[in-house]
Amino acid sequence: MSTALAPARTDERLTGVPGEPLDHRRYRRMRFIRRFEETLLQLFEEGALNGTTHACIGQEADAVAVTEHLTEGDHIFSNHRCHGHYLAHSGDALGLMAEIMGKEAGVCRGLGGSQHICAPGFKSNGVQGGIVPNAAGIALANQLSGNDAVSVVFIGDGTLGEGVVYETLNMASLWKLPLLVVCEDNRWAQSTPIAANMAGSFPGRFSAFGVPVRSVDSTDVAEISQAAGQEIAAVRAGEGPRVLLIHTYRLCHHSKSDDERPEQEIAERWLVEPLVVHGRRLSDSDRLRIDDEVETALGEVVATARALP
């Protein structure tokens, strides 16, 4: 299984050492994303960061499972909740931390901030649905070039209220573009539950354009990876666009502090979150060792980023 190309600043303590068992590597990468996001929220509380941020705590398995099937030439497009996708793709914790801090050494020289990342093989944008046509455009370019690269775009359930998504699905289906849409249904569009803002069904939104939909209701990185691998292989083989619909759950607030969901609902979801589910596959000693290694590496990242001009 190949992974996306990583920048030089990738730290193996965060992404996986050579020869590390797959279960260990997956846990390490999810733990890395989790602690990065928690650290960001802490830095905001300390007043060390400005603006806003949207964490993906609880959704780490999606990013890790999808990106481990991508190779050089593939392209990822993300949204306002992009950190996990970028870190799973690149492992560049320092570049992203510096970017969010507004430092010159950031991925986009401190100009993009939390939501707008532009890096090799990766683009994100805070405009809901706005990134979907871009993903289709790159898919079309790959198709015309005759290569087998795929374009993957991550959207949330709330994005299905944007008309440009359906215009793009129509063209992608007509032209059989090598596009995979990963819809992360975290049950809430900011503070609005799905039942209050969405008519019809999730699959129906896509099947209306003849786009196959595969649904996975799970936080298990292994189960999601199996589904993602099969869908990406089908897109790469020229079968046209497909949708991987992942029913997941956002454990944190929408951005830094806004959360109106029932406390009991959130508490129940903490019992089946990705690190708990996958962590059972590791021994206690291996899990604690990886936790310590990630914590040490991330601490060094934060210290280095703070010291940058």
TrEMBL record:
Molecular-function GO terms, alphabetical: magnesium ion binding; oxidoreductase activity, acting on the aldehyde or oxo group of donors, disulfide as acceptor
Domain Dehydrogenase E1 component, residue spans: 28-269
Transmembrane segment boundaries: none
Region Disordered, residue ranges: 1-20
Pfam families referenced in this protein's UniProt entry, alphabetically: E1_dh (PF00676)
Cofactor: thiamine diphosphate
CDD domains: TPP_E1_PDC_ADC_BCADC
Domain of life: Bacteria
GO biological process: pyruvate decarboxylation to acetyl-CoA
Sorted UniProt keywords: Oxidoreductase, Thiamine pyrophosphate
Signal peptide positions (record): none
Keyword Oxidoreductase: yes
PANTHER family for the chain: PYRUVATE DEHYDROGENASE ALPHA SUBUNIT, PYRUVATE DEHYDROGENASE E1 COMPONENT, ALPHA SUBUNIT BACTERIAL AND ORGANELLAR
Name of the protein in question: Dehydrogenase E1 component domain-containing protein
